[in-house]
Amino acid sequence: MNFETRLVLAVDIGTSSVRALAFDAEGAIHARRQIQYPAIRPRPYCEEQNPVLVRNEVCRAIAELLASGEIDPASVGAIAFSSQMYGIFALDGEDRPLTNNILWSDGRAEAQAEAMKAERGELWLYPATGCPMNSIYPLAKIAWLREMEPETFAASRRFVSIKEYVAWPFVGEWVIDYSMASATGMLDIRSHAWHPEALAAAGLSPGQLSRPVSGLERFALRTDSPLSGLGLPEHVAIFMGGGDGPLANLGSGASEIGAINIDLGTSGAARCIADTATVDESASLWCFCLTKELWAYGGIVTNVGNAYQWLGSNVAGAAGLSSDEAYALLNRLAAETAPGAGGLFFLPYLRKARSPYWDGKLKGTMYGLTADHGLGHMARALLEAIAYDLRTIIALMDRRIATLPHIVLTGGLSRSPVIPQLLSDVLGREIRTPRDGEGSVAGAAILALRGIGAIDDLAFMESARPYTTFMPDPDNAAIYEASYRSYTRLVEALRRIDLPEGEVR
User: What is the band of 502 on the pLDDT scale with cuts at 50, 70, 90?
Assistant: First the structure.
């Protein structure tokens, strides 16, 4: 078997699109396809997606890539998946969706999460599952469904993530990789098995969830799968891969113990790789399994690209610009604005605040606004707030793990003309951005390559991946040091304000 010419197909099931890319063992990309799809906001703090649509678009993206003529389908040795995390939906006895996929950004289950904390304590389950109790986790979302839609809950045969639903026609088994299972809030991250107390709290039996497996466990492609007839070899292997967060560490090159990856897309996260399950006394950060021997320790920032998109959409709507024109304008104005945004603070909590505060009462807030501020100040203040929250997360990580001095930055915002240098200045660390910009989907490719024996470690064969490097500017760093202290004081002050929740119509 000539592994030097063997390709693998990595499929990233994202929040806004599916991407299918063909990689070789050196990390080179030979072909790619991307298909967009929408999310649904039925009411405030609720975000869903049609799982049938997503499954169909994943199959279409793979089929279009294989039919493109850019690669020989017979050269594909394996397919592996990266996926958005924290989503859950119900299936009936015929494995048909009873609900839409309740996305990571959905905050409907806050009351259920708070009730569990009040009844069982702030740290309940966290030492075992690595998940701070919060509405982001499927545990709380299933509890919401049981309480608010009991007939649907009673009719539910099983609960799955979007990746399980997409992969089932390919492998013919209901299986979930360890990292996706970790993100449910119901997996014991040391035994890699469902936690009995978590299942009881959700009102589930073990048979209603998929079997947890290593992302490196090999499955055969079903002969009657939607990919039949596309020219794939009979022996092509299927790997469940992982969640987009932990895989971003592998794909970005931040796979050493203590290596940090910041991945900024629709949402964002900062994670480091650990060789032991790691939790903290305050349940500030989560810990997810990556493989049987590795874990990812870090936190999620839910208001990143989606918050910047919100600002851009409102600018576009008011000014008659296209989305691309609006984002180009925001980027230019933010780049032209001095560090510190003229004393303006933009707390970006348009959706429920998760790491580092895990406080659903925080709201989007602009503080310090004067007649001297303009759109550029708002755009820069929003980007700076993202960096401040990441700084708090990394400081918490440093208390438990000896992290490496540099950080690998991936995701859509890594290509921003502002963000990489801004992060370097705020964090006081060297920032490296891979030239190809890929993180999670490259991580899925690495698992596929490792699974078929094309590589020996969890990294591409190429030893020196090309990066663009950013170093802290001492003058800017001094400004951000003072601004960061003011920002954290402002956040804590706002957390103490308890105003009644206004109705949104």
Answer: low
Over residues 186-200, the mean pLDDT reads: 97
Provide the 10 A C-beta neighbour count for residue 164. Answer: 28
Average pLDDT on 333-349 reads 96
pLDDT band of residue 17 (cuts 50, 70, 90) is very high
pLDDT of residue 2: 41
- Vertex 54, ends 42 and 178: CA angle to 5°? 100
Distances (CA, A) of 228 to 59, 60, 72, 154, 170: 11, 13, 15, 35, 9
Quote the CA–CA distance of 436 and 418 in Å, as a whole number: 18
Q: What is d(CA 292, CA 215) in angstroms, rounded to the nearest whole number?
A: 9
Measured between alpha carbons, how far is 228 from 231 in angstroms, rounded to an integer? Answer: 8
Backbone φ, ψ for residue 251 (5° rounding): -70, -25
- Is the separation of the CB atoms in 295 and 189 below 8 Å? yes
Work out the pLDDT band at 192, boundaries 50, 70, 90: very high
Helices (H), 375-430: 375-398, 419-427
| DSSP helix/strand/coil, 291 | coil
Residue with tokens 């466990």: 217
Smallest CA-to-CA distance from 386 within 421, 422, 410, 417 is with 422
Determine the residue type at 296: A
Whether 199 contacts 158, CB under 8 Å = no
**SS3 of 154, please?**
helix
Q: What pairing do the DSSP bridges indicate for beta strands 7-13 and 76-83?
A: parallel
Mean pLDDT of the chain: 92
Whole-prediction pTM value?
0.87
Residue written as tokens 């202290």? 485
Question: Chain centroid to CA 280: how far?
Answer: 21
Is residue 182 helix, strand or coil?
helix
Whether residue 227 contacts residue 59, with contact meaning beta carbons closer than 8 Å, is answered with: yes
Instruction: For residue 396, give both structure tokens.
Output: 């918490």
- Asked whether 98 and 460 are in contact (CB, 8 A), the reply is no
Q: Which residues contact 162 (CB under 8 A, 6 or more apart)?
A: 13, 49, 51, 54, 55, 83, 84, 87, 89, 101
User: What do you get for the CA distance between the two ends of the chain, in Å?
Assistant: 61
Mean pLDDT of 382-387: 96
pLDDT for res 126: 95
With a cut of 70, say whether residue 463 has pLDDT above it. no
